[in-house]
Amino acid sequence: MYFPSNEALALYVGENPHLSCLIVEHCQALTLIPKLPSHLGSLHIFDCPGLVSLPELPGTLVILQVVKCPRLTSLPQLPKKVSILQVYDCQGLASLPALACPLTKLEVDSCPGLVGLPDLPGTLRFLLVSNCGLLTGLPELPAHVASMVVTACIALTGLPGFPDAFDSLRVDNCPVLVRLPPLPATMTFLL
């Protein structure tokens, strides 16, 4: 939904305390998100160029998607239930919070200020990292990661070893990455 101001969003959230999903999009004047409903399960923020911070996230949150928020420099601590985190086109983002949650899918794309990723949780199954120009390496992959996409990370010098259950890898446009670690026998797709 479009909200012309911080106040308009705060009024909407205040009038709808039982929201389970909140989509905020194309809000040029929005600089902050108000306190979120305690039952919120998913939060999707698209194209909010003035947004500088997010509030504390409710413990019920399962999905967080943040797209085209160039002034956002950090994310708050993720609740223990978050299973999907997608962050796209957030130029000011320098780091991600600790990922102490049952995260199964992590996608980070076009975050040129990101200098590293935190340790990945053991529940992670899919990792996408793309267009993160300062990223030089990735943390160790948990045992259950099955698929990874790494593209246009121009400073990436190496990849961690692959877990035994790993089956799909795409690596593209990473010019200083000169070799891959040994591939597991379970690998079915390599691009």
Description:
- With 191 residues, the protein is mainly beta.
- Helices cover 5% and strands 22% of the residues.
- It contains one helix and nine strands, in the order αβββββββββ.
- It has one helix at residues 6-15; strands spanning 21-25, 42-46, 63-67, 84-88, 105-109, 126-130, 147-151, 168-172, 189-190.
- It has a nine-stranded parallel sheet, with no helix packed on it.
- It starts with 5 loop residues before the first helix and ends with a strand.
Secondary structure layout plus pairing:
Elements: H1 6-15, E1 21-25, E2 42-46, E3 63-67, E4 84-88, E5 105-109, E6 126-130, E7 147-151, E8 168-172, E9 189-190
Parallel strand pairs: 1-2, 2-3, 3-4, 4-5, 5-6, 6-7, 7-8, 8-9
| Largest sheet, strands/sense/barrel | 9 strands, parallel
Uncertain spans, ≥5 residues at pLDDT below 50?
A: none
Please give the order of strands in the largest beta sheet.
1-2-3-4-5-6-7-8-9
Report the β-strand fraction as a percent range.
Answer: 15-25%
Estimated structural class: mainly beta
Q: Taking all residues together, what is the mean pLDDT?
A: 94
Coarse morphology: globular
Looking at this protein, list some descriptive labels.
single chain, 191 residues, mainly beta, 9-stranded parallel beta sheet, 9 strands, 5% helix, globular
